[in-house]
Amino acid sequence: MDLGLRGKRAIVCAASKGLGRATALALAREGVDLVITARGEAALAETAAMIAATTGVKVAMAVGDITTEAGRAVALGLCPAPDILITNAGGPPAGDFRNFSDADWQAALQANMLTPIALIRATIDGMIARKFGRVVNITSAAVKTPIPMLGLSNGARAGLTGFVAGLARQVARHNVTINNILPGPFLTDRLRDNAATAAKAAGRSAEEELALRAKANPAGRVGTPEEFGDACAFLCAAQSGFIVGQNLLLDGGASNAAFG
Ligand code: NAP
């Protein structure tokens, strides 16, 4: 299926590794020119080179912390008028909510709620004027099924979800869509690190921990970044203009609910 995106421009945030990287590659395969962001320059340069060599699209690097105004300015300076915006950043730390300080909450809100909103605010009017725009926010399955030790993530991402639910309905008539993808377990560095920490506490190896998680999932495995990237690219397709304000849960069926 041709997604009708050849020649479009995208900003893909937090894209040197993991889900952002896979999304950038999936969009590039559709002929989308990219600005990709991350704090670490070496991994970002490796990803940019790989995507450009594999697909032939233009890939520019925005090195910086996307949760800061300066980091966002670098990305927006390279691509002030994107057709596609993928918001993403690292997830907040786990812990008992009693130990979270105001600073912890501010950082989580900044990374996982206010940064996506700032990026949307900076780009959406141009999308409306051009009559094409696709915004996908990478959030978490924790938005629908809160994870007890991830209170910062549950709260900040739910705030973003509520805001964009309203905005998505205001911009849809201009062929500008905003949707969220809610990842369950995908095999990225973040999941490997999480599994290693949990494994240590339980006295088993990280491999055993990952195998247990895979077995517990209805799909009998964890997700691959590639299948995440392809789903995200589909939400950006020219044909996806009627998919508005949705929260697409990609978790292998782990959230056990009849609806949603
Ligand atoms: P990952 O494999 O650890 O990759 C994170 C990427 O984001 C890296 O490229 C990293 O590069 C970049 N990044 C992190 N913080 C950044 C910042 N402040 N500014 C710019 N770039 C930043 O993580 P992932 O698994 O792809 O996760 C992506 C998001 O999905 C996270 O918010 C995570 O919580 C969420 N999520 C993931 C899963 C999963 O199973 N993988 C499940 C639920 C939710 P630098 O470190 O160099 O900046």
TrEMBL record:
Belongs to the short-chain dehydrogenases/reductases (SDR) family. SUPFAM superfamilies: NAD(P)-binding Rossmann-fold domains. It comes from the Bacteria. It holds the Pfam family adh_short_C2. This is 3-oxoacyl-[acyl-carrier protein] reductase. The lineage of its organism: Bacteria, Pseudomonadati, Pseudomonadota, Alphaproteobacteria, Acetobacterales.
